[in-house]
């Protein structure tokens, strides 16, 4: 079976090189049910392997040919070699969280094999407390962060006693009970007319939308495009090696700061990242006088109803730019500047259709395209300094066959000119940050991650939030470094 590929999804295949792999990842840490251990999880995976059930979504691989005029499309493989896609590895004894980050950094470095479906999963044993981790990487052309999170949620339950749940690779893009073919067979003529008229209106609004984006960029106003990003050591051509670090915080800490400052949770995330990057560059004596600019992805999926079919998740992502106000030493002033920039950026996207937002976001990606294709950007047309993304996860605790999902740390893709990505997601009353960097351009990424903790402390202290409201300040596995773990083996 063949499915068309959107231009945005095809872009990730076009942009990919061995030095610039275009996959995203997620690292989930799970605690076993009472009386169970990591070996039990391996047995669950072995049982899922024996079922040998792989829905079409996970059997798709990219192809192009003369008959497609060189354009990429999705081809559904008849068979999938699960022994290749599913691997098992282990950390050394008494490994700390630093050892886990190092292990995952290695896994996140290599490209996915385009002759196979574009995903791989690793079961990682050896974590303290009989815990284990799951790392999965999928190509950016296959799924964006929001759709990947929704697929992950289909494998979990809020009921700790529920069993016989599917593995992630057994989940179809179509919700259970849905029938895309059946629903597509009944065509509503009025719906077709409405769709055509809506598309015509969208196209008519594209030119004004692009003009507005350019106008805002010239005047350093918020929107999808910026002409004000300064040069930093983070904005250089990237190498192939990756580094990763994660940090987790009780989400109530951020919510309390947001409440005291009349900010959103995302504003606090941006302010924490702004302060951490500022501190990191100051330590390297490389902080520019102009404020750093961030790209903030915006999901265009909306609140899809439960059970809505999603046969090809792909990408439905827009973007806006935000000033991180790193030129300001005062944390309150910096947060206020971030809030103002985000309000301005959201105003630029307000009342725009999905097509118009995507087109405006494509304009904002022009500097990045120049950096990737030419190795430089003309004049002041520079990409933003960093990508900062916040993906909403499930509320409350979730379980997979009784195993509690403690955290999910996102890992993302890097581009030439953008050697750092910070993505976070919320789960089980926590917010988990994942920092992905080019190992050469962002040395000691763990110190940057540590600064997130300090920046949240600063925001709490500045706004007089008592320590009593900040108990359970940080959860993790520790910070002691260990020797590099052994390579993964097949299950």
Describe the SSE topology:
Layout lengths: L1 E3 L2 H9 L7 E9 L6 H14 L8 E4 L9 E4 L5 H4 E5 L6 H11 L11 E7 L6 E8 L5 H9 L26 H6 L3 H16 L1 H13 L23 E9 H11 L3 H19 L9 E7 L17 E7 L7 H19 L4 H11 L1 H9 L11 E6 L7 E2 L2 E9 L8 E8 L2 E9 L6 H18 L26 E2 L1
Parallel strand pairs: 5-6, 9-11, 11-14
Antiparallel strand pairs: 1-4, 2-7, 2-13, 3-4, 5-16, 6-7, 8-15, 9-10, 12-13, 14-15
Helix pairs in contact: 8-12, 9-10, 10-11, 10-14
Task: List key phrases describing it.
491 residues; alpha+beta; 34% helix; disordered C terminus
Give a description of the structure.
By secondary structure, this protein is an alpha+beta fold. It has 14 helices and 16 strands. A seven-stranded mixed sheet has the order 12-13-2-7-6-5-16. A six-stranded mixed sheet has the order 8-15-14-11-9-10, with helices on both faces. Strands 1-4-3 form a three-stranded antiparallel sheet, with no helix packed on it. Helix 8 (206-218) packs parallel to helix 12 and helix 10 packs across helix 11. The longest helix is centred in the middle third of the chain and has 19 residues, at 265-283.
Order of strands across the main sheet:
12-13-2-7-6-5-16
Residue windows where pLDDT falls under 50 for at least 5 positions:
174-204, 303-312, 468-475, 478-491
Mean pLDDT across residues: 79
Helix content: 25-40%
Based on CA atoms alone, the radius of gyration comes out at: 22 Å
Q: How would you classify the helix and strand content by structural class?
A: alpha+beta
**N-to-C span:** 29 Å
Count the E strands. 16
Q: SSE order, as H and E? A: EHEHEEHEHEEHHHHEHHEEHHHEEEEEHE
- 3D shape: globular
The proportion of residues in beta strands is 15-25%
Oligomer: single chain
Contiguous helical run count: 14
Major sheet size, sense and barrel closure: 7 strands, mixed
């Amino acid at each position: 079976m063949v499915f068309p590929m959107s231009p945005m999804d095809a872009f990730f295949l076009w942009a990919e090189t061995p030095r610039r792999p275009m996959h995203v990842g997620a690292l989930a840490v799970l605690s076993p049910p009472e009386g169970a251990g990591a070996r039990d999880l391996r047995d669950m995976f072995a049982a899922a392997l024996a079922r040998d059930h792989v829905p079409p979504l996970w059997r798709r691989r990219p192809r192009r040919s003369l008959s497609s005029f060189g354009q990429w499309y999705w081809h559904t493989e008849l068979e999938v070699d699960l022994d290749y896609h599913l691997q098992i590895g282990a950390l050394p004894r008494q490994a700390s969280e630093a050892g886990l980050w190092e292990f995952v950094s290695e896994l996140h470095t290599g490209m996915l094999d385009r002759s196979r479906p574009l995903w791989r999963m690793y079961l990682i044993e050896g974590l303290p407390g009989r815990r284990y981790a799951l790392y999965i990487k999928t190509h950016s052309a296959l799924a964006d962060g929001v759709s990947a999170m929704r697929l992950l949620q289909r494998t979990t339950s809020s009921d700790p006693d529920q069993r016989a749940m599917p593995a992630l690779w057994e989940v179809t893009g179509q919700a259970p009970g849905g029938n895309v073919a059946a629903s597509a067979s009944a065509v509503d003529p009025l719906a077709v007319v409405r769709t055509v008229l809506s598309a015509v209106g969208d196209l008519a609004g594209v030119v004004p939308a692009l003009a507005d984006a350019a106008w805002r960029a010239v005047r350093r106003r918020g929107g999808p495009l910026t002409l004000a990003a300064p040069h930093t050591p983070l904005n250089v051509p990237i190498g192939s090696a990756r580094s990763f670090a994660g940090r987790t915080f009780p989400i109530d800490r951020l919510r309390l700061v947001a409440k005291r400052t009349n900010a959103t949770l995302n504003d606090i995330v941006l302010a924490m990242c702004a302060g951490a990057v500022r501190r990191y560059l100051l330590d390297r004596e490389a902080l520019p006088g102009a404020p750093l600019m961030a790209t903030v992805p915006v999901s265009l999926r909306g609140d899809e109803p439960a059970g809505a079919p999603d046969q090809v998740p792909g990408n439905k992502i827009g973007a806006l730019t935000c000033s991180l106000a790193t030129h300001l030493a005062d944390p309150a002033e910096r947060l206020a500047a971030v809030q103002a920039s985000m309000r301005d950026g959201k105003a630029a996207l307000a009342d725009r259709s999905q097509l118009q937002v995507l087109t405006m976001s494509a304009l904002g990606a022009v500097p990045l395209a120049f950096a990737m294709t030419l190795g430089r950007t003309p004049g002041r047309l520079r990409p933003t300094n960093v990508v900062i993304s916040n993906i909403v996860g499930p509320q409350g605790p979730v379980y997979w066959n009784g195993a509690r999902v403690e955290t999910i740390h996102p890992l993302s893709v890097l581009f030439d000119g953008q050697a750092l990505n910070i993505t976070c997601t919320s789960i089980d009353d926590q917010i988990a940050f994942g920092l992905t960097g080019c190992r050469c351009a962002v040395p000691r990424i763990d110190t940057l991650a540590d600064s997130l903790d300090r920046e949240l402390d600063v925001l709490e202290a500045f706004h007089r939030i008592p320590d009593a409201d900040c108990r359970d300040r940080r959860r993790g596995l520790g910070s002691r470094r260990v020797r590099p773990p052994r390579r993964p083996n097949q299950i």
